[in-house]
Amino acid sequence: MSANAKAGRLVLVHWNEKEAKILATELRAAGWQIKAGLPELKELKAHPPHAVVISLRRLPSHGCEVADAIWYTKWGRAIPIVFFDGEPDKVEATRKKFPAALFTTWDNLRVILESLAKSIRDGSPK
Questions:
Q1: Per the CB 3.0–4.6 Å rule, which of 8, 15, 89, 96 could disulfide with 50?
Q2: What would the pLDDT profile of 56-109 be if each residue is shown by its tens digit?
Q3: Domains with residue ranges and CATH for the chain
Q4: What is the pTM of this model?
Q5: What is the full DSSP assignment across 80-125?
Q6: Are 70 and 62 in contact (CB under 8 A)?
Q7: If we measure between CA atoms, which residue out of 75, 48, 65 comes closest to residue 13?
Q8: Which H or E run contains 20?
């Protein structure tokens, strides 16, 4: 991922702490401010991130629960959710449940995030 100063704030949800630290480091190197771990709804409401990035590599049902909790609220529906990786059947089930979410692989995540960063800079919607 290329460096992109002031890209924005992301919440990274991944169910392997060691791997999450590595992924967060890569996102920080690309210019993103990262909060890794399970987000608290009151914190998301008070300080909405530019996106919530959820791994489907492990425990995809848990990732869906996080997305459900966020999009259950009216204010949370404005936060883009980006799912990445996962087994094809789990990804397809998640796509059906969250058709408004974005889906990608970790390797292609930067393209989605660069698009979000551009919309942040331009002040336009995602």
A1: 8
A2: 999 989 999 999 999 999 999 999 999 999 999 999 999 999 999 999 999 999
A3: 8-120 (3.40.50.2300)
A4: 0.88
A5: -EEEE---HHHHHHHHHH-TTSEEE-TTTHHHHHHHHHHHHHHT--
A6: no
A7: 65
A8: helix 17-29
